[in-house]
């Protein structure tokens, strides 16, 4: 599965985009399933023209099956994540106020989505799924560079930790 990762610094924010493309075999499978479904449902209505309709539906399904995507917008007051963060893969938006964040942590544990997590008082929230440890460190460094005040607050609140990736601290 191909992964695309990009950090873009804007005037008032940082935008991090992560995209995982579906492999070609999965896109072909989605197209075939859509074609078979269209063929079986429309055969009685369209007669012999169903072959053309099924082929068109297969092509559209192949072209539109993209994969997973997540975008994180970081400002001095909030972390806004848009993308497929849930287990069902639907588009969602999650907002975490930076005042509630005690630090950032990379997690790659069984049963959880791997990615960058914001540590809050209540629980850890995934703010950027689909990233590895090295990419998570790049994100933390970008946040530390753009917002040094946040880095100082997070350093004071979390202290040194082996598992936490707080700005300025690491494994």
Question: Would you give an account of this structure?
Answer:
It is a single chain. This protein is α+β, with helices and mostly antiparallel strands and 171 residues long. The chain has two domains: 3-21 and 69-158, PH-domain like; 24-64. 37% of the residues lie in helices and 31% in strands. It has helices spanning 24-46, 50-64, 133-146, 148-158, and strands spanning 3-9, 14-21, 67-74, 78-84, 91-97, 103-107, 115-119, 124-129. The strands form two sheets. It has a five-stranded antiparallel beta sheet, covered by helices on one side. A three-stranded antiparallel beta sheet has the order 6-7-8. A hairpin with a 7-residue loop joins strand 6 and strand 7. Helix 1 runs antiparallel to helix 2 and helix 3 (133-146) crosses helix 4. The longest helix has 23 residues, at 24-46. It is elongated and about 70 Å long. The two termini are 27 Å apart. Mean pLDDT is 79; it is low at 167-171.
Q: List the uncertain runs.
A: 167-171
- Compute the CA-based radius of gyration: 21 Å
Order of strands in the sheet with most strands:
1-2-3-4-5
Query: What percent strand?
Result: 25-35%
Q: According to CATH, what is the class of the largest domain?
A: Mainly Beta
CATH architecture of the largest domain: Roll
**Helix/strand/pairing category:** alpha+beta
The largest sheet is: 5 strands, antiparallel
Please write the string of helix (H) and strand (E) elements: EEHHEEEEEEHH
Gross morphology: elongated
Number of strands: 8
Helix content: 25-40%
**Overall mean pLDDT:** 79
Domains, number: 2
| Number of H- or I-type helical stretches | 4
Alpha carbon gap, first and last residue: 27 Å
Examine the coordinates and then state which fold CATH places here, giving the name of the CATH topology of the largest domain.
PH-domain like
């Amino acid at each position: 599965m191909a992964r695309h990762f990009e950090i873009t610094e804007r005037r008032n924010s940082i935008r991090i985009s992560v995209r995982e493309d579906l492999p070609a075999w999965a896109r072909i499978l989605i197209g075939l399933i859509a074609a078979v479904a269209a063929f079986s449902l429309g055969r009685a209505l369209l007669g012999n023209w169903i072959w053309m309709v099924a082929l068109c539906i297969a092509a559209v399904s192949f072209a539109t099956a993209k994969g997973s995507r997540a975008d994180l917008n970081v400002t001095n007051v909030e972390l806004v994540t848009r993308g497929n963060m849930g287990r069902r893969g639907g588009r969602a938006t999650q907002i975490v106020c930076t005042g509630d964040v005690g630090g950032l942590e990379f997690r790659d544990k069984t049963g959880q989505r791997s990615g960058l997590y914001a540590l809050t008082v209540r629980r850890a929230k995934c703010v950027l799924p689909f990233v590895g440890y090295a990419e998570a460190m790049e994100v933390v460094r970008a946040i530390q560079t753009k917002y040094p005040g946040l880095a100082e607050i997070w350093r004071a609140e979390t202290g040194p930790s082996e598992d936490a990736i707080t700005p300025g601290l690491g494994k």
